[in-house]
C-alpha cells in the first residue's frame, strides 16, 4: 500500500520537528565547540585623578568661534574659508560617512532578508547522462521563479555586538571630525600669528636699515672733516649689508609662511602674497587656577579615543561570540518547471522552510588567535586613550603656565626696552657731538633692536599661548547628546544607549 502524499500542514509539522531536533543538537554540541580559553582583563584606563584633574573645578567656557575675539577680519575670513572646504576636513567628513554606512550595514544584518530570483535556461540534455528519455537527447527550456528568505537568529549576540562596535566607530569618527576642525582652526590662527611676528620683525629690521644708512652718511661726513678714521667708516659700511641680509632672510620666511597659511585655508600657495597681518592686542581673560575633570569631556580627541575603546570592547565580545553556533531560518517559495508552458501550473509549486546550523568545533586555533588579536586591539585603544588624557592635561597646563610667565616677562622686557632706547639716544647724541665713538652707537643700537625683536616675540608668544589654551580646553567643541556628564566625568553606561535605534 502506498504512503499518502505529504500535505502542507504535514510539511510544517515536519519543519517544526526538525527545528526542535536541531535546537536540541545545539545544546549537546555546545560542550564540544571550540574552546574560548581563560578571560583576559584589559589594561587599566586613566581617569581624571591619574591626569591630575580636579573633580570640583569648573571648566572655563570656550566660545565655539573663539578666534573672533582677536578682532582680526583677515583671520576670520581665513578660518571661514578653511571650515567651508579644506581637503583635510573633507577627508574627515568622508570617514564619518563611511562609518555611517558600516553602521547601516550592521543594522541590516539583524533584519530578515528577502530576495527574488528568476531564470530561464535553454539546454540540450545529453543522451548518456542520468536524465532518461524522452528528455535525454532533446532541447528543453527550464524556468524558475522563486522568493527566498533568510533570518539569522542572533541567539548569541554576534550581530548585536557588531552593531554596537559599528556605532562606536561612527561616534569616534564624528568626534575625530570635531578634533580635526579644532586642530585646523588653531593651526591657521598660529600660522597667522607667526606671519604677523615675521612681518613685525621685518619692519624692525627696515627701521634698523634706515638708521644704519643715516649713520653711514654721518660717518662719511666725519671722516671728510677729519673727526673719524677709516676704521669707523668700514664699520658703518659693513653694518648696512648685514641688516639687508636679515631683511632678505625674513622675506623668505614670510613667503613660506604665506604659502602654508594659504594651503591650510584651502587656497593656492600664492593666494596670500600680499597678506601683512599685525599682532593684535591679547584678549584679557581670567586663567583657571586648577584644571577641571570636565576637560576630558570637552576634548574631541579624548572623546574619540573613548569611543574607540567602546568599539574595541564590542569587537572582543564579537570574537567571543564567534565560538558559538550560527542558527539561520531559511525558506523559499516559488515555481519551477521544465518548459515555460508548465511554469504557472499548480504542479510547479516549490516550497521549503527549515533551520540551518553552523558550529565551529575544531579550527586549529583560528578563533582563539582572532580573539587574542581583538584583545590586543582593545589594550592598544585603552593605551591610546590614556595617552590622550595625559596629553590633554599637559597641553592645558602648559598653556596656563606659559601665559602667566609671558605676562611677567613682558613687564620686565618693557622696562629693559625703555632703558635700551634711552641709552641709544644718548649714544647718538654723544657721537654727533664728537664725545663718543661709533662702536658705542652700534652697541647701543644692537641692544635696542634685540629688545624690539624680543618685544614682538613675546607679544606673538602670548597670542600663541592663548590659542594653545583655547585648543587645550576643547576649542569650543561640544559632545553630542549620547554622552551624559556625571559628577564631572563621562558615564560609561551612556555610551551605547542609542545602539538599538
In which range does the helix fraction lie?
55-70%
Structurally, the number of domains stands at: 2
Stated plainly, the CATH topology of the largest domain is called Outer membrane efflux proteins (OEP)
**Which second-level CATH architecture of the largest domain applies?**
Up-down Bundle
Under CATH at level 1, the class of the largest domain stands as Mainly Alpha
* Strand neighbour order, sheet with most strands: 1-2-3-4
Sketch the major β-sheet.
Answer: 4 strands, antiparallel
Task: Let me know the CATH homologous superfamily of the largest domain.
Answer: Outer membrane efflux proteins (OEP)
- Shape descriptor reads elongated
- Number of distinct beta strands: 6
What is the rounded distance between the termini? 58 Å
Secondary-structure element sequence? HHHEEHHHHEEHHEE
Mean of pLDDT: 82
* Strand residue content: 5-15%
What does this structure look like?
Residues 233-267 form a coiled coil. It is found in: Cell membrane; Membrane. Belongs to the outer membrane factor (OMF) (TC 1.B.17) family. Its main location: membrane. InterPro entries: MdtP/NodT-like, OMP_efflux. It is elongated, with a radius of gyration of 38 Å. The chain has 501 residues and is an alpha+beta fold. 57% of the residues lie in helices and 11% in strands. Residues 1-14 and 481-501 have low confidence and may be disordered. It folds into two domains: 46-110 and 157-324 and 368-494, Outer membrane efflux proteins (OEP); 114-153 and 326-358, Single Sheet (Outer membrane efflux proteins (OEP)). The strands form two sheets. Strands 1-2-3-4 form a four-stranded antiparallel β-sheet. The protein has helices at 8-29, 73-85, 87-108, 158-224, 230-264, 295-298, 300-321, 366-432, 438-472; strands spanning 113-124, 139-153, 326-338, 349-358, 485-486, 489-490. α3 (87-108) packs antiparallel against α4, α4 packs antiparallel against α7 (300-321) and α4 packs antiparallel against α9.
